[in-house]
Specification:
Number of helices: 14
CATH architecture of the largest domain: Up-down Bundle
Radius of gyration: 25 Å
CATH class of the largest domain: Mainly Alpha
Strand order of the largest sheet: 1-2-5-4-3-6
Shape: elongated
Number of strands: 11
Oligomer: single chain
Bound molecules: flavin-adenine dinucleotide
Structural class: alpha/beta
Mean pLDDT: 89
Length: 424
């Protein structure tokens, strides 16, 4: 997810600035001036590792203003992963460097430093922290694990971090910046679980109408019950639907892009059955209550700046439909819409009608069947490709494959903007 709305360099640098700021604060504060080099490395790696873990906690908070400031949820997620992994590596260096210091005197001292059976519980808690962090990380990058199982295993990282702080406080007592770091991580965790996951910061909406534009796709019109969210076409919300007489929700917030943004604050979500929760949502009927958090994202923010190529994979059509419904194109735009079969293609008739009415809009609607989309022949049909800004929305493999082909055709990376419908 990228943006043309803010100076890109500044926006991209903000998560990095947060990480570097915390690393610098912890690194400088902990730097021991008069200790032998291995021991100094052991101490600094532990504190810098803690700083990176704190940063990764802050970067998992899904709060609209924070996300906007930090360049969007996807950028936050990217840096959440990076700082978590690097933090773990540095925490692993901590006992190894301390043992290396002992090795210089006597190898048996090095072993004593590492052997948990020769230690007390404050050191065991450190080993437990490393073990849990390793376990959590091992599962973090698995794409094959079902989402909920992945989430539970990912939470081992949180317990690992808790064990790590226990280790610090048991050994050092209330160590200044350590308390501040633990406090910051605690606030981030509480914010994430209470305000975001439990929905305390969500706005209530009423499900006013339900339509079914294609098999396995439900289209919901939502009317705000309190203040309307200031959402733009291309942005998404985190939505949870409360149980009703004929409907049992799954009690979770899921990301969905608005497919229509009304001037009166109403918005439309179009949801395809792609798994357990989105499958259940197909049974929704009018009258229910929705809770929304957002808006998030800045996909399509630069949509009127010069010629565009928009590529939608399946239900990835939602941000483009929202933009086209808002107003006619201001710049020449080719919309490539890929779907397995015509009957699965939500809004196809409406898009064909819009393309007939709007001279700047060209629609290339492609039924792919069960084969991979014919990307090269499609790109051959797009005139002036290198001068276009490309916006891609759909499953992660489509985004990756298309970005690769575009790069090979000389479209610079900063002109390829994407929204992947896959969050981990
Ligand atoms: C930015 C964004 C915008 C999206 N917009 C739309 C849209 O307009 N219409 C649409 O039909 N779909 C959209 N999706 C996809 C939609 O969110 C998933 O299909 C849905 O969450 C799947 O949940 P599930 O329980 O049905 O399936 P599962 O099989 O449990 O999950 C499938 C995948 O969805 C993601 N996912 C599942 N639960 C969550 C969660 N609670 N929070 C975040 N990600 C989760 C994970 O990547 C997971 O691997 C969007 C996704 C993203 C990231």
């Amino acid at each position: 997810m990228s943006s043309l709305a803010l100076p890109e360099g500044v926006q991209r640098a903000r998560p990095l600035m947060l990480v570097v700021g915390l690393v610098a604060a912890f690194g400088l504060w902990s730097y021991p001036a008069e200790l032998p080099p291995w021991r100094a490395l052991g101490i600094v790696s532990a504190w810098v590792g803690c700083a990176l873990i704190v940063a990764s906690f802050v970067l998992m908070v899904r709060e609209p203003r924070l996300a906007r400031w930090l360049g969007g949820l996807e950028a936050m997620l990217r840096w959440h992963h990076r700082s978590g992994v690097l933090g773990y590596v540095l925490l692993l260096v901590h006992p190894l460097a301390l043992a290396a210091e002992g090795w210089r005197d006597d190898p048996r001292r090095a072993w004593q430093t590492l052997d948990p059976f020769q230690q007390s519980w404050p050191v065991w808690s450190g080993w437990l922290a490393l073990l849990l962090l390793m376990l959590g990380l091992a599962f973090s990058f698995s794409r094959r694990l079902a989402y909920r199982r992945w989430l539970v295993l990912h939470q081992a990282l949180g317990i690992g971090a808790l064990a790590g702080w226990l280790h610090v406080f048991a050994l050092l007592g209330d160590a200044g910046l350590a308390a501040a770091g633990a406090g910051l991580a605690g606030v981030a965790l509480a914010w994430r679980f209470m305000a975001v996951d439990a929905g305390l910061s969500a706005s209530p909406y009423h499900v006013a109408a339900v339509a079914r534009p294609a098999p396995g796709v439900v289209d919901l019109r939502l009317v705000p019950l309190a203040g309307a969210m200031p959402i733009a076409a291309g942005q998404f919300v985190l939505a949870r639907f409360d149980d009703g007489p004929a409907y049992h929700g799954c009690g979770e917030f899921h990301p969905f892009t608005a497919s229509r943004v009304g001037a009166d604050g109403t918005l439309q979500l179009t949801i395809k059955a792609l798994g357990r929760c989105s499958g259940r949502l197909q049974g929704l009927s009018p009258g229910g209550l929705a809770r929304l958090q957002g808006p998030f994202g800045d996909f399509l923010a630069g949509r009127d700046a010069g010629p565009q190529l928009w590529v939608a994979g399946g239900i990835g059509i939602t941000p483009f439909v929202a933009a086209l419904r808002e107003h006619p194109r201001a710049a020449p735009t080719t919309l490539v819409y890929l779907y397995p079969r015509s009957r699965d293609a939500a809004f196809l008739d409406e898009l064909q009608q819009l393309a007939r009415e709007d001279t700047l809009l060209e629609l290339l609607a492609v039924e792919t069947g069960d084969s991979p989309p014919p990307l090269d022949p499609l790109l051959d049909r797009v005139t002036g490709l290198a001068a276009r800004t490309v916006q891609v929305c759909g499953p992660a493999p489509l985004v990756a494959e298309l970005s690769d082909r575009l790069a090979r055709r000389g479209v610079p990376g900063h002109r390829i903007l994407h929204e992947s419908f896959d969050f981990r």
